[in-house]
Amino acid sequence: MAYLQTKAISHAQRVRSLYKEAVRQLQSTYGYKRYIFRYHAVLMRARFDEHKDEVDMRKAKKLLLDGERELWLKQNPQPFKFPESPGGVAYAREPHTPDWLLDIWHPYEKAQYPEYFAKRELRKKEFIERWEKKYGKIDPETHH
Predict the structure, then answer these.
(1) Would the pTM count as exceeding 0.85?
(2) In the 8-state DSSP scheme, what is residue 82?
(3) How many angstroms separate the CA atoms of 22 and 19, rounded?
(4) Nearest residue to 41 (alpha-carbon basis) of 18, 13, 59, 22
(5) Percent with pLDDT over 70 in the chain
(6) Which UniProt keywords apply (predicted)?
(7) Cα 131 to Cα 27: distance, rounded to the nearest angstrom
């Protein structure tokens, strides 16, 4: 899940993220007329470029926090979402089919795809070997 943050991000990354989200909010608000959206996007870029060479990190941090607060206060009640993204209309529309379902196929069904299932068995064997090398073998007596 790429949308979950798993590590600390730098000031520059936060500024880029703020800019991208600000432009997405403009797209949500003015996207119905492309030229109006582009006009506001250029104005937004000018606001960011005005402070791009700021060397005082205290002032830069304050600008960033003020920008994030402004973005929060001016967020669109119906933000633009890509269809396949979380919150989009087509997110998780097609359910994930678990791999183990192929294990319960009848042998006659598997016989229709002999090369695929031969390679799949090799991959399963390699996966089990890697697992046992990393975590050790499972004791059948203690495993239920």
Answers:
(1) no
(2) -
(3) 5
(4) 22
(5) 97
(6) Acetylation, Electron transport, Membrane, Mitochondrion, Mitochondrion inner membrane, Phosphoprotein, Respiratory chain, Transport
(7) 47
CA-nearest of 41, 24, 34 to 75 is 24
Lookup result for tokens 């506001």 = 40
Which pLDDT does position 23 carry in this prediction?
Answer: 95
**Nearest-angstrom CA–CA distance, 80 and 83:** 9
142 pLDDT higher than 80: no
Higher pLDDT, 22 or 5: 22
Amino acid at 144: H
Question: Please, what's the b/e burial string for 104-114 (b: 16 or more CB within 10 A of its CB; e: otherwise)?
Answer: eeeeeebeeee
Greatest extent of the chain over all pairs of C-alpha atoms, in Å: 71
Tally Cβ neighbours within 10 Å of residue 41. Answer: 15
User: Which residues, including other chains, have CB under 8 Å from residue 87's CB and lie 6 or more apart?
Assistant: 81
Rounded-to-integer distance, Cα 72 and Cα 102, Å:
47
Closest CA to 22 of 78, 76, 82, 92: 76
Q: Which tens digit of pLDDT belongs to each residue from 48-90?
A: 999 999 999 999 999 999 999 999 999 999 888 889 888 889 9
Amino acid letter for position 79: P
